[in-house]
Design a protein that fits this description.
This protein has 96 residues and is an alpha+beta fold. The chain is built from three helices and five strands; from the N terminus they run E-H-E-E-E-E-H-H.
């Protein structure tokens, strides 16, 4: 199994980030067949071959996912797409 861990600071505030994350969860369900469940500010998602959590806070989005054996071969491509999606949804990463 492979792990993907992404952290993205944002300036949307808690409610703005939750609105965006809810929209993203709907796209995960409809576009990728994910089963998504909210527990407070934490989105749990899964489907065969992948499971994980996305935690939403007032200034940070954290995503941790476990890829199964078959999807592990595509880890780099999946991580690249997730980074592009994070930029689209939550803005570009902050440069130190």
């Amino acid at each position: 199994m492979s792990t993907i861990a992404l952290h993205r600071e944002h300036c949307l505030g808690q409610e703005g980030a939750l609105d965006v994350a809810r929209r993203l969860a709907q796209e995960l369900e409809s576009g990728y067949g994910m089963r998504c469940e909210w527990q407070g500010d934490v989105l749990r998602f899964e489907r065969p071959g992948v499971s994980g959590v996305m935690t939403v806070s007032a200034d940070l989005i954290e995503l941790n996912a476990e890829l199964g054996f078959l999807l592990s071969a595509f880890k780099g491509q999946i991580e690249d797409q997730l980074n592009r999606n994070f930029e689209t949804y939550f803005g570009p990463p902050e440069v130190a």
